[in-house]
Write a structure and sequence with these properties.
The complex is a heterodimer. Chain A contains 22 helices and 12 strands. By secondary structure, chain A is an alpha/beta fold. Chain B has 2 domains: about 35 residues, no CATH class; about 180 residues, NagB/RpiA/CoA transferase-like (Rossmann fold, 3-Layer(aba) Sandwich), CATH 3.40.50.10420. Helices cover about 30% and strands about 25% of the residues of chain B. The chains are: A alpha/beta, B alpha/beta. The structure holds iron/sulfur cluster.
Chain lengths: ~475, ~220
């Protein structure tokens, strides 16, 4: 996947002018926020559960090596196989080996962000293996050759007319006069088309919401049931998960499950929470003959022990982007890589480098809504600030920004001069603002004034007013 | 160096985990004791109120629920469900002993097939191991007599659960799993099911029947 994060500004610009996208993004604003808040209100223990969930992940991360090896031992004991991968390329290689071993032609995939991260689909296709996305949203964007624009609602940037056009383009064996005008008919068609694919697939690949050290289980949480069909019908089930997905016990998973669905879709519990352990047992009438887990690092271990460690608590619920005004305005693709919104603004620089993704932590108004809704209480704004500092230290900001800030800093450190300058400039600017008292043009700020005017300063400066206020408080006349 | 050693090495270094001997004890204790954490008070009820809460929550998740007086009337309840929805009088089920003990022969018109689903079944019948009042959730363990395909392939999934097996919280199922399979052991699949399959992927409109069953019907058996 081409990383377009360095072009965030251009991406955002285009997104704002994209009428289809802007219409579709309305569904995010109206859909997710109310549902979440109702679910949260209905559970008095919600906030206590957030603290509990955070403590579980903090404890696990502090002992990650031990929990990973405990988990591995249990997977092996249940008859599964564990593969470790340091990089995306290693993980892809392991998947390919498994496919080759079984002479696989088709792979059915449950929804998984980690396989997006390692760009598995392109790789499999290039190796002559057909990956079939089975989650409705993922299926739609696979038909379009796109990437998810949201971590739990991958096709949220599309309207139903676009989906209809794609289905007509691809499902050419179906009668052209069929009615596909409402979402239900689109869903029905996808269901019929994909049903066959599960049976054809030699291998099923899913991600994992949790890995449980106590039992060696992987857990997926879904609503459609495609992740289940993908893992019970093919002969081989491959789980790809990053190392921070591990939790100690089933009870710990239960604590986090209680905040996950509510934060994501506002459900009390998602429709299917599936705990999978090893391959089918000798007498089982169905289920996969083989069970593989690929444990992927891909940059996580480098976040441990740094100011970004807390980001590893993320359970990919999507609440931060659902509540983010910047995400609402530009959608997920503008972020230019796999993970959008506030969690992407923190995670993407960690995984692909702040030199490429430096714009993302800057694309924030610091309104703080993401942190206030994050079920894992991840201090997202604070970490975006850390990235800004690192970017500054490494001299990665554009020259104009650096020069401007340096100039301002020079002034700010000389208060007498600063006050004199503002005292002199204020009345001049007030006059320059003209009768409308606004500027429609400002040097160096063309982008800003293109969409709004800058009000001209009126009256006295802030510092002057502050002094007056102090004087009033002390009761002395002006 | 293997990828395994490399990753674990990086993790240990980042955690500065060398001289900390107490860690292993902590981790071991946690794995052994599995402390419960915060349990919502919502479902800490007496048995009858728990069953009522279960029915209410399952209905809220778009399942349909029927309460019947005893095992012997379950086959009639299944037939009634199929008839009310104009479905063919055919079901697929596993060999679960509680289902087997029911008088299916009384339903003359009902055709019962056994074993996993091949994808052509319109309706299946499963027996849940347990249920959870807190969220209206069913818990089904896979095994010789409980094929997992029955939970996902048919359009209509009919699940029988004993009222006595309805617990308050998610943790009650974790305890059951330990009692049944042993500490740290699990069957191949444990399915928690809350309502019928759905998707909101097109314009965030919630539609039932995505890939799994379009309808989930729960028969709660009292007595
Ligand atoms: S950062 Fe928090 S809110 Fe955002 S996806 Fe992760 S867990 Fe959810």
């Amino acid at each position: 996947m081409l990383i377009t994060s360095p072009a965030f500004k251009q991406n955002a610009h285009e997104a704002l002018a994209d009428a289809q996208l802007q219409k579709a993004m309305g569904h995010v604003r109206s859909g997710f926020i109310d549902k979440r808040s109702h679910a949260v209100e209905a559970l008095p223990e919600f906030d206590a559960l957030r603290d509990s969930a955070r403590a579980i992940k903090d404890h696990t991360l502090a002992n990650l090596d031990l929990y990973l090896t405990a988990y591995e031992e249990k997977v092996l004991a249940a008859g599964g196989k564990v593969h470790w991968a340091e990089t995306a390329a290693e993980a892809r290689g392991i998947v390919l080996d498994i496919c080759r071993m079984h002479d696989a032609k088709t792979v059915a995939k449950g929804k998984s962000m980690i396989t997006e991260e390692i760009e598995l689909n392109d790789f499999l296709e290039a190796s002559g293996i057909r990956p079939v996305e089975t989650d409705l949203g993922e299926y739609i964007i696979q038909l379009r050759g796109e990437h998810p624009s949201h971590i739990i609602a991958p096709a949220v940037h599309l309207n139903k007319e676009q989906v209809e056009a794609d289905f007509r383009r691809v499902h050419t064996d179906l009668p052209p006069e069929r009615d596909l005008s409402d979402p239900a008919s689109l869903l029905g068609e996808a269901r019929r088309v994909l049903r066959q694919k599960y049976f054809e697939a030699d291998i099923g690949i899913t991600g994992a919401n949790f890995l449980v050290a106590e039992t060696g289980s992987s857990i997926i949480v879904t609503n459609e049931g495609n992740g289940d069909l993908s893992q019970i019908l093919p002969r081989v089930h491959v789980v790809i998960a990053s190392i921070e997905k591990v939790v100690p016990t089933l009870e710990d998973a239960a604590q986090i499950l209680r905040v996950l669905a509510r934060s994501a879709t506002g459900q009390e519990m998602s429709v299917y929470t599936t705990v999978s352990t090893g391959p089918r047992r000798p007498n089982d009438p169905d289920g996969p003959d083989e069970y593989h887990v690929i444990l992927l690092d891909n940059g996580r271990s480098s976040m441990l022990g740094t100011e970004f460690q807390e980001m590893l608590r993320c359970i990919r619920c999507g609440a931060c982007m659902n509540h983010c005004p910047v995400y609402h305005a530009v959608g997920g693709h503008a972020y230019g890589w796999v993970y959008p919104g506030p969690m992407g603004a923190v995670l993407t620089p960690s995984l692909i480098g702040v030199d490429k993704a430096g714009h993302l932590p800057n694309a924030s108004t610091f309104c703080g809504r993401c942190e206030s809704v994050c079920p894992m209480k991840i201090p997202l704004p604070k970490m975006m600030r850390h990235w800004r500092e690192r970017e500054w230290e490494r001299g990665l900001n554009p020259t104009a920004a650096r020069t401007g800030l340096k100039f301002w800093a020079w002034f700010a450190r000389r208060p007498a001069l600063y006050h004199l300058a503002t005292w002199l400039a204020f009345p001049l600017l007030a006059v320059a603002g003209g009768r409308k008292r606004r500027f429609g043009f400002l040097p160096l700020a063309g982008g800003w004034v293109r969409h709004r005017d800058m009000p001209a300063p009126q009256g006295r400066t802030f510092m002057q007013q502050w002094r007056d206020r102090d004087a009033l408080k002390q009761g002395s006349p002006l | 160096m293997s990828a395994r050693e490399a990753i674990l090495g990086k993790v240990r270094k980042a955690l500065d985990a060398s001289g900390n001997a107490g860690r292993l004890d902590n981790v071991w204790d946690r794995l052994m004791e599995a402390p419960a954490g915060i349990i919502p008070t919502r479902a800490q009820l007496d048995p009858e109120a728990r069953v009522e809460l279960f029915c209410r929550m399952a209905t809220q998740a778009a399942a349909t629920v029927a309460r019947v007086a005893g095992e012997e009337v379950v086959p009639a309840a299944v037939t009634a469900y199929l008839r009310a929805r104009n479905l063919p009088a055919k079901v697929r089920m596993g060999g679960d002993r509680r289902l087997k003990a029911m008088p299916w022969v009384n339903e003359r018109t009902l055709q019962v097939r056994h074993g996993p689903s091949d994808g052509d079944d319109e309706a299946s019948v499963s027996h849940a191991a347990a249920a959870i009042a807190e969220t209206g959730t069913l818990a089904l363990f896979s095994g010789k007599d409980n094929p997992t395909t029955l939970n996902f392939l048919p359009d209509h999934h009919i699940v029988v659960v004993d009222a006595a097996d309805i617990g308050g919280d998610l943790e009650s199922v974790m305890r059951l799993a330990r009692a049944r399979y042993g500490k740290g052991e699990m069957p191949r699949t444990l399915n928690f099911i809350t309502g019928p399959s759905r998707s909101g992927d097109i314009e965030q409109k919630l539609l039932l029947g995505a890939h799994g069953p379009r309808a989930l019907h729960i028969i709660v058996v009292d007595g």
